């Protein structure tokens, strides 16, 4: 799977979060529930100071078996105390581009990324959804590198 190394500035994300892990049998349901809460239950409508139109799926706070998943939007200033605020650290990232079904393309890409020998920092990996067509989406996946 091809990628390019890019340097990113810090980003602030506002959205909804939950903790899960790759071995959690409920992982798919938990992550799907966050996207549902963001879009279908109206959390996204309340997010102030949006800096981008692209939805973000952020993976942070890694431990040996779990991580925090946040679905949200990049903001210029966090002013939503009822929602989660997370920071994507500035730094070096491996950027992967995938196209296709929103769920399947991302799941396949992550399956391949977990098998790669990347020098990961585990400080904050994220998906940026650059279109909203669920069947033909363009998604950039950013993996934090040391």
Question: What features would you describe in this structure?
Answer:
The chain is α+β, with helices and mostly antiparallel strands and 146 residues long. It has one domain: Alpha-Beta Barrel (Multidrug-efflux Transporter 1 Regulator Bmrr, Chain A). Helices cover 18% and strands 43% of the residues. It contains 2 helices and 8 strands; from the N terminus they run ββαββββαββ. It has an 8-stranded antiparallel beta sheet with strand order 1-6-8-7-3-4-2-5. A hairpin with a 7-residue loop joins strand 7 and strand 8. The longest helix has 14 residues. The protein starts with a strand and ends with a strand. The mean pLDDT is 94.
| Poorly predicted tracts of residues | none
CATH topology: Multidrug-efflux Transporter 1 Regulator Bmrr, Chain A
Radius of gyration: 14 Å
Order of helices and strands: EEHEEEEHEE
Helix fraction? 10-25%
* Bulk shape: globular
The top-level CATH class is: Alpha Beta
Chain-averaged pLDDT:
94
Total of helices:
2
Précis, in short:
With about 150 residues, this protein is an alpha+beta fold. The chain has helices at about 25-40, 100-115; strands at about 5-10, 10-20, 50-60, 65-75, 85-90, 90-100, 125-130, 135-145. Strand 7 (about 125-130) and strand 8 form a beta hairpin.
Task: Reconstruct the topology from this structure.
Layout: E1 4-8, E2 11-20, H1 27-39, E3 50-60, E4 67-75, E5 84-88, E6 91-100, H2 102-115, E7 125-129, E8 137-144
Antiparallel strand pairs: 1-6, 2-4, 2-5, 3-4, 3-7, 6-8, 7-8
Name the features.
8-stranded antiparallel β-sheet; single chain; 2 helices; 8 strands; Multidrug-efflux Transporter 1 Regulator Bmrr, Chain A; 146 residues; alpha+beta
């Amino acid at each position: 799977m091809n990628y390019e190394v890019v340097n990113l500035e810090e980003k602030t994300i506002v959205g909804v979060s939950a903790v899960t892990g790759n071995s959690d049998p409920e992982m798919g349901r938990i992550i799907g529930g966050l996207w549902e809460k963001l879009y279908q239950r109206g959390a996204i409508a309340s997010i102030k100071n949006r800096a981008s139109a692209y939805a973000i799926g952020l993976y942070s706070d890694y431990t040996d078996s779990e991580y925090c998943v946040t679905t949200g939007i990049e903001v210029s200033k966090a002013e939503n105390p009822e929602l989660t605020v997370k920071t994507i650290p500035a730094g070096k990232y491996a950027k992967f581009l995938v196209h296709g079904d929103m769920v399947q393309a991302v799941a396949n890409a992550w399956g391949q990324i977990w098998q790669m020998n990347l020098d990961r920092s585990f400080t904050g990996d994220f998906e940026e959804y650059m279109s909203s067509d669920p069947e033909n989406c363009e998604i950039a996946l950013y993996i934090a590198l040391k």
